[in-house]
Amino acid sequence: MIGLGVLGFGSAGRALRWLLVIMLVAVLVFALFGRCFTGLDPLATVARPWTPPNNNHPLGTDVLGRDVLARLYWGGCTLTAVALLAAAVSTAFGIAAGLWAGWSGRRIELGVSAGADLLLAVPAVLVGLVLAVAFPMPVAVVFATVVAGAPLTARVVADVSSDSRHATYIDVARMRGDSLPSILVQEVLPSHTAVITTDYGLRVIVALQLVATINALGLGTAPPQPDWASMITENYSGIGLNAAATVAPAVALAVLATVVAVAAMTFGSSSLGSDPRSKARESVAA
Amino acid sequence: MSDGVRLHPVLASVARAAALLLVVSIIVFGVTALLPGDAVSLRAAGRMTPEELAVLRSAAGLDASLPARYLTWSTGIVQGDLGTSTSTGRSVASMLANRLTVSTSLVAVSLVIALPLMALFALLASPAHGRRPAGSAVTTAVAALPQIVVAALLATVLSGWAGLVPPVSLLPRGESPLARLDLLLLPALTLALPAGAYGAMLLRGPLVDAAATPYIVDARMRGVGRVRLASSYILPVVAAPTVRVLSLVLAGLLSGTALVENIFGLSGLGELFVSSIATRDVAVVQAISLLAAAVVVIGMAVADVVAARTGRRASV
């Protein structure tokens, strides 16, 4: 939320929003498809371990003498894809449950129920680490993200959709003879895209943090494969010889996480800003 | 709690906490049961016959059914017995006790750093004239950073460029961790920075709600001073949510030790947790998970009591 007031009005705000969109697209394209922009081999040993940056290797080499820049191009894909997927599955489950609950007039009062407490009491990171050993890493991350996130999404969606249950445009659709699923998907859902955008962004962040921790501890992506999080731990002990091998993947991960987070809050809250009962806020808080 | 019987609020929170811990213990036990292989087969590494393995397994109680194993484990915990480590043969309690000093020192120092950071971030992200300032973008961004990123960047700046602290915190044997604050600074800061931002984000909701309540708006219009407004008007309203947020922040710090202790070479609970997953030392994994859960559950119970005393809901 780079100043809601600024973003909401005026050309400066609009320019900032566009800048944010461009950054988001750029960072996602680099993370997911970075390997397409380089002909370098991320697995080949090309120089002595932890060679500092030079003309041939702009970011130097890593623990096994592999080109850090090449590994940087390759290392964001799995991590980002898994986080995006886990968040999508979680949000989809949450939307389905939330629409059902909201439409049937049930309020999911997770804020005071024992369910919310349980959700918070289970040490999610620790359970995620155990799951990462028990299952393939993507499965573990999707599972942990859904269990920890979908109930929160469901509550937010239930709140906003039960509010729109008696809206005029819903009555119109009902009288037109639209089926219930089509009313929910075509009428109710589109009016809450801002809430859902924010929520999805938050799930991506939580999933990304989990993947990063799992990979950094060596419980995820298998060793020779380049991965931003495991690059940090692999090269940490060589930080005195070639700091770039640690800093470059750290900066890449930091940019990815912060741009996604700021974009999610900005685009979500822009249409929620005037609503004093801002539901997105609660989803953060929960 | 229930509609019929009205329990004393403290009693009700204790009952609630106990029920919650019971459910969490089942979840923790169930998840750890999913780990492939067990400590016995991992240690034997193919050098034993199936018969020899079976004998060792039954000695370790690994051949019983899952519910039976849960019962043995949970009754043991209620009696204060955390079980025996399958990979070292020592009692889990003594293994944890060895590591506890390092981790509690680390978490305590982190908490001391995280609290002012939380206040600062909450101030940055607090609404001014109904608008959210750019500071909330900073808070959001910091809270979004993966822990490993914070570790790498802080180490580069504090250890690499500034040369203030060593990049790894190998504690000399037998020396109190608190006597070597220079070694704890980097890991503690790594834990505290995202935790502080996260706590501030959690607190923002209750703070915004509190600032909007009629009696606080009224007090402000009557010209009540800022300090008095914060201490006598806003604090009682946000006390319960704050305790809840604190227990969540504390739990976050505890979970964070799994990664941070591994990176910086501290041998505490977090490091033990990760190595115990690798050796399938299930009893240790379970005990540490349950400990982390207990921190949150107790914190929430305290928040409930505070909520009952201040007459506010504790929900965050």
What would your notes on this structure say?
Chain A has 286 residues and is an all-alpha fold. Chain A has helices at 4-8, 10-33, 68-74, 77-103, 114-121, 124-134, 137-163, 168-175, 180-188, 193-216, 228-235, 244-272, 279-285. Chain A is elongated, with a radius of gyration of 22 Å. The two termini of chain A are 19 Å apart. Chain B is mainly alpha-helical and 316 residues long. In chain B, α10 (226-264) packs antiparallel against α12. The model of chain B has no long low-confidence stretch (mean pLDDT 83). The chains are: A mainly alpha (286), B mainly alpha (316). Chains A and B meet through α1, α5, α6, α10 and α11 of A and α1, α6, α7, α8 and α10 of B.
Query: How many strands appear in the DSSP assignment of chain B?
Result: 0
The average pLDDT score of chain A comes to 83
Extract low-pLDDT stretches of chain B. none
According to DSSP, the number of beta strands of chain A is: 0
Share in helix of chain B: over 70%
List the helices and strands and how they pair.
The complex is a heterodimer of chains A (286) and B (316).
Chain A: H1 4-8, H2 10-33, H3 68-74, H4 77-103, H5 114-121, H6 124-134, H7 137-163, H8 168-175, H9 180-188, H10 193-216, H11 228-235, H12 244-272, H13 279-285
Chain B: H1 9-33, H2 39-44, H3 50-59, H4 66-78, H5 92-125, H6 135-144, H7 147-161, H8 181-212, H9 214-221, H10 226-264, H11 269-278, H12 282-310
Helix pairs in contact in B: 1-12, 5-6, 5-8, 5-10, 6-8, 7-8, 8-10, 9-10, 10-11, 10-12, 11-12
